[in-house]
Design goal:
Blueprint: E1 9-12, H1 22-37, E2 41-46, H2 58-68, E3 78-79, H3 84-94, E4 98-101, H4 105-112, E5 141-144, E6 153-158, E7 162-167, H5 168-171, E8 175-178, H6 186-196, E9 201-205, H7 212-222, E10 228-232, H8 258-272, H9 282-297
Helix pairs in contact: 1-8, 1-9, 6-7
């Protein structure tokens, strides 16, 4: 897609692993409201790069649910599986910053047992294959080198929660851009797609907040502009787990009565985002929701 000359271009980028649930509705609604409040463009991208998890027909169910909720996208919908050439070009551009890795997750976890204070953290790659594969290892994944000295510390101001900083060297290490199973990694695909589509503002769930520094680093080394970020709170279940398909989240849209969709899904999602709305139909909902979101933005840590 050609980059377009709009001051605000946002997007909603669901994975087609099943129908949208309440948590994904919150993310979709926030991104849509932010684009409309800024008189911008709102794109939809189907992030189907993790082919093994895709569910047949889920992409069409997602698009139908968005339309039933009155969220109409600008331009054409894009699918990541149609954009592999862009990801391959990005890896070529990264050149010597990319190297093959033959380590399994178990080997990485075992290597951390000897690293004081890191046992409770997410897996941090120790750089085993950084200077070449060990004898007998096969390079299955591709990793991106993170600077070691000085440390690679990335910071940004999130429009919802304020300042966020992460030391990629100590907290992440060299990270995967193409997985061992051959699928392109989320971090690379999302950065390349956002750059190619001219995305200026990213509104998504707070579960992706700690991924953002990895994306900032990729933007830097690929020479791409840095979008503005806003990470909204995520919906959790009664156990405190993020609401997701893996935790049994159900679809919010059964294709039935729009009145039920409005009162049982859309209004609760708006309330979760901090909007106190009353509406009798979906058109009235958006007429009230867009200015309410604009007003809410004035209370956030960093206004656009």
């Amino acid at each position: 897609m050609t980059v377009r000359n709009f001051s605000y271009i946002g997007r909603f980028a669901p994975s087609p692993t099943g129908p949208l649930h309440t948590g994904s509705l919150v993310a979709a609604m926030a991104s849509y409201l932010d684009a409309k409040a800024h008189h911008g463009q709102w794109l939809v991208r189907i992030e189907d790069v993790d082919v093994g998890r895709n569910v047949a027909g889920a992409d069409q169910h997602i698009l139908a649910s968005l339309q039933r909720c009155g969220m109409h996208w600008d331009g054409e919908v894009t699918w990541q599986t149609q954009r592999y050439a862009l990801y391959e070009a990005a890896v070529r551009q990264l050149g010597d910053l990319i190297y093959p890795c033959g380590c399994s997750r178990k080997e990485i976890a075992d290597s951390q047992l000897s690293l004081s204070g890191r046992q409770a953290q997410a897996l941090i790659y120790p750089g085993t294959c950084r200077h070449g594969l060990a004898p007998g290892k096969v390079g299955r994944a591709l990793r991106l080198k993170v600077p070691q000295e000085p440390h690679c510390i990335l910071s940004f101001d999130d429009r919802w929660s304020g300042h966020y900083s992460q030391d990629l060297t100590d907290e992440v290490g060299d990270y995967v851009v193409r997985r061992a199973d051959g699928y392109w990694a989320y971090q690379l695909a999302v950065v390349v797609d956002d750059g190619a589509q001219g995305i200026t503002d990213i509104v998504r769930g707070a579960d992706l907040l700690d991924s953002t520094p990895r994306q900032l680093y990729l933007q830097q080394v690929l020479g791409l502009p840095q979008p503005s970020y806003l990470h909204v709170p995520v919906v959790v279940n009664e156990l405190g787990d993020k609401l997701s398909k893996q935790t049994g989240a159900r679809a919010f849209d059964d294709g039935g009565d729009p009145h039920h969709l409005l009162h049982e899904a859309m209004l609760p999602a708006a309330r979760f985002l901090g909007l106190d709305l009353h509406a009798d139909n979906i058109d009235a909902f958006w007429r009230a929701a867009i200015p309410a979101w604009a007003q809410l933005l004035q209370t956030l840590p960093r206004r656009p």
